[in-house]
Amino acid sequence: MDINGLIIPLGASILIGALMGLEREKNRITSKGLSAVGIRTDMLIGLFGAISALLGQTIGMWIFACCLIAMLVLSISSYLYLSIKHDRIGVTTEISTILLFLYGAMTVYGYMQLALILAILTTLVLSMRQRLHKAIYNINDRELYDTIKFALITFVILPLLPNHSYDHEIFDFLFPNLTPPPGFDSINVLNPYNIWFLVVLVSGISFLGYILVKIFGKGHGIAFAGLLGGLYSSSATSLTLAEKSKENPKVVTPYVAGIVLACAISFIRTFIQIRVLSEETFTYILAPIGLMFLYLLIVGLLFMSRAKTDHKTTSVNKFETPFKISQAFKLGGFIVAALVFGKIILTYTNIEWFMLLAGIMAFFAIDDPIIISTASSAGSLISFHNAKNIIMVVIFLNMIQKIAVAYFFGNRKLVKPLAITFAGLLLVTLAGIFYF
Fold it and tell me: For the whole model, what pTM was predicted?
């Protein structure tokens, strides 16, 4: 490796050290000096890891092993000294120091981008110490139990499910006298592993939203609560804020902002789901749906800026726990039903009936399964153009359902600004359908 090829990884190792060192330096100040690690030390540790890896490549891996052992000995010695001398408890500093050394080594071994991502995530975790501790303190036993169940079905049950399609067995049983039309075999929907993976994916996004609400949501403004809650569920957030709005009938704008922002952030769920299912479909729908997302985000932020009185609220705490077995099976049932009915309708009837099914499910806030079914069928049973249009209509119908939520469950003063907002969204949706 020439000198020009070494500058970038060595420089990256120093930058990684500086990034993590900024947080450790701040923590060092607040911990009254009970830490031997600061920004300069972290920059040198990152560089030390990179140089150790470089020497390991050019001379022998035994040099890198020796340097790693030396770093482990220094970290252990620092921990023992501070724990004995100052009664300090915790090994966060020592673990982050060892990770930093390894990140520096990764830059030389060709994993520079991964090292940067891991360093950013590590710094984020370190900087969220107080918020994480506070969030964990507020977690009740049921939330902890449900979280463990979510981990169980994700990391234990999912890998054990058969990754095999049972379409022919099921459809031959349901339609024994019908010959499958062309294109029937082009998409397999009854795969237990794939179906449960989609359940885990949708539940996991909601889980992330729940964690964000738990960490950041309490005590912040109504609009901000909606912004976070949209990742959990735009329908649940809208219902919660609508019910809360009846307690403050003179306050309208903050609740409108919260509902609109919840709808905007819910697009992230859609982007992730479609990207996981089909990269080509994602590329096709990115521009028109991205336009809908930007419209709602801008309008929501405008409402947020106009909210002169954004009362503090804890309404997001009414959200249910991040995971329940019954909810997972219910979601799985909806996904299976949407996939099966979608395939039956698209292969044995026509797309108009599928659009009708999609519209009905969307208006009743069952949008995730129908979006999954549409994205799964795109390019085989349905054209990308039609899939894009169906997804846009599903999203729009799910959004205007929030008007009905405000009318029946909340302060009816919310209805007019929401109706105007979603009338504008209709124009954006039509533009996406006819011009993209």
Answer: 0.67
